[in-house]
Amino acid sequence: MINFLDITKETCPMTFVKVKLQLAKMEKGQTLEVILNEGEPLNNVPASCEEQGYKVLSTEAVGDGKHRLMIEK
After folding, report:
1. Which residues are catalytic?
2. Is the CATH number of domain 2-72 3.30.110.40?
3. Can you give the residue ranges of every domain in the chain?
């Protein structure tokens, strides 16, 4: 099951807070698809996820300065 979260309207540090809250609701092994803006969110969210023990599966640009981040809990 893939969960989805759009944090393009959020600013740091709320970007990672929203991601962490969503991951907390999920079962181990599930995947979270996050849409986020380039810049600070793109730099900080994947790094913070890895620091918390989550696995960043991929990051790809989707256009208009937005990126898709895939995280496994």
Report:
1. 12
2. yes
3. 2-72
